[in-house]
Amino acid sequence: MESLSQLSKETVSILAKAKNPDYIISSAKEQMSRHINKGFKKITKPENNVHWDIVYQEGSFFIEQNNHFHQYRLIGNGHTYFSVKKKEKLEELLSKIIEIGTMQNNSDLKSSMSVYQVVVDDSIEEKQGCKIIKLNNAREQFPETTNLTAGFYTIHPCNEKALTPLENYFGNLALDKDNECVVLLGKMGAKKVKISRTENNEGNNKFSSGINAKIKKEPQNDSSITVDVGSSILKNLNNEMNFEVLFKGTPTNINKDLLLNSVWYKNDPQLNGLLESLLSTNPPKQWDFEENINSTFNFDFSATASILGILETNLKEEFKKISRIKRIFHVEFE
User: How would DSSP label each residue in 81-145?
Assistant: First the structure.
């Protein structure tokens, strides 16, 4: 994980440019409070009668610390957003703010959602609001797109080299995120990863050759598939399904820079915290955390409904359904 000074710099820079910094901060605090391993037990109140030193400031946002009380706090527009006493907790929260804020700011930079109509036949008429692109050209321009065929797509919110289908947009993003998470956990040396899905009504590591992963779907106990560690398991995932991945083989050295090129988890405090723990002298035997998709990523519901010929309310219900699904990861390393 990056140093506190660098995290502070990135955080206040993002918040200073954000259209809605309050939303970014409140979303980060809400997500951190739900962590199984790394949740905040208490948000302390700032001590206003002691001396504070600014760690980094940009515009009206700054992070400051008090070495006497070992306390840190985030200030913006004359308002104290939070105060914490443990440096590692602050680093986790700042990482989450950076993650959410980067996605939100990237979305805000786009005046409208770009929609690509991928075709194999030049004679197909361009649909209003879309950009026609031949399938071969789309594969060259967006090389990290999986299972690209003819249809309607928009740019992946976290990866400019990939397209995401408009149909079942949020469901596809959730599966994409789960897929990358499982692949990364395997590269961290996990022996077993179990994902349990529940509905929340409230809102370059080297491995020895021959390693493979066995995926067991539930409730069909006799249904399984074997894949190589590091390979995509996206085709085996389903938003309604609980399943487990069993990894076989022994990893060599865990790459400390494993998450730097991650699509979803570069600044994720949960996996960064796990990686840091695994590289320590006392690595964990198991680890629990949870995930969900709770951002619209500036998705244009109205335009998409018109293009797909469906009701806008149906798309919004799809998002609500996906955002209520909480995925609980149980990881075992022995």
Answer: EEEES-HHHHHHHHHHHHHHHHHHHHHHH-SS--EEEEES-TTSPPPTT-EEEEHHHHHHHSTT-
What is the pTM for the complete model shown? 0.66
Tell me the torsion sign for CA atoms 115, 120, 123, 124: negative
Give the model confidence (pLDDT) of 181-223 as tens digits: 999 998 998 888 888 888 865 444 433 334 455 555 444 433 3
Percent of the chain past pLDDT 70, that is, above it, reads: 79
Query: 48-79 in b/e burial notation, b at 16+ Cβ within 10 A?
Result: eeeebeebbeeeebbbbbbeeeebbbbbbeee
Closest CA to 12 of 72, 68, 71: 72
Task: Give pLDDT < 50 ranges for the chain.
Answer: 34-46, 111, 202-211, 217-224
Sheet holding 192-199, edge to edge: 224-228, 212-217, 243-248, 192-199, 325-332, 286-291
Unique residue bearing structure tokens 């003819």: 150
Scan for tokens 């487990």, then name that residue: 244
